[in-house]
Amino acid sequence: MTPRIIALPRDQRHRLAPLLALYAAEMRGVLNGAVTAAPEAQAALLAAHPVAEVLLAEDAAGAPLGFAILFDLPEVVFARHCGMLDDLFVRPEARGRGLARALIAAAVEQGQARGWSHLRWIVPEGDVAAIALYDRIATRADWRSYVVRIDPAASL
């Protein structure tokens, strides 16, 4: 059966904790060992955040398989909005089944319904597998990404 993708309500975002733990562990390697928050704290932040939206991929029994975190942003140049895909993760044993593509497609559908000019995201240069997928399904942007590190403990 095909996994389904749902918009995860705030009061259910605690369900992400197991996926967030896997995601943080995987990203520590990509992010040079950066210290990450506990999964429960991450899920609580998403539950309390006033504009974060979460798409959840789940199996037929309702077990979480992956997620995408989205933000609706103003796009001043076009006097419209755009979407920002902040995080995307699929549990390792569920990869290769098109879930990342399906999560991105669901984000694009939301964007079409909202009149977004585009959907954008950033990815760490060290995340080779993600970059390989994104190069197949999206166009690399002409923009550079920069960061001002405010908290050294949250280094990327």
Average pLDDT for all residues:
89
Order of helices and strands: EHHEEEHEH
Strand fraction: 15-25%
Figure out the total of helices.
4
Which strands sit side by side, in order, in the main sheet? 1-2-3-4-5
Helix coverage percent:
25-40%
Task: Estimate the global geometry from the Cα principal axes.
Answer: globular
- Helices and strands: which structural class? alpha+beta
Distance between the termini: 37 Å
Report the biggest beta sheet as strand number plus sense, adding barrel if it closes: 5 strands, mixed
Query: What is the number of strand segments?
Result: 5
Poorly predicted regions: none
Over the alpha carbons, how many angstroms does the gyration radius reach? 16 Å
GO molecular function: acyltransferase activity
Keywords: Acyltransferase, Transferase
Pfam family, one: Acetyltransf_1
Protein name: GNAT family N-acetyltransferase
Textual characterization of the structure:
The longest helix has 16 residues, at 99-114. Helix 1 crosses helix 2 (39-48). This protein has a five-stranded mixed sheet with strand order 1-2-3-4-5. It is built from four helices and five strands. The chain starts with a strand and ends in a 19-residue tail after the last helix. With 156 residues, the chain is an alpha+beta fold.
Q: What labels describe this entry?
A:
single chain, 156 residues, alpha+beta, 5-stranded mixed sheet, 4 helices, globular
Question: Helices, strands, pairings?
Answer:
Elements: E1 4-7, H1 17-30, H2 39-48, E2 53-58, E3 64-75, E4 80-90, H3 99-114, E5 119-121, H4 128-137
Parallel strand pairs: 4-5
Antiparallel strand pairs: 1-2, 2-3, 3-4
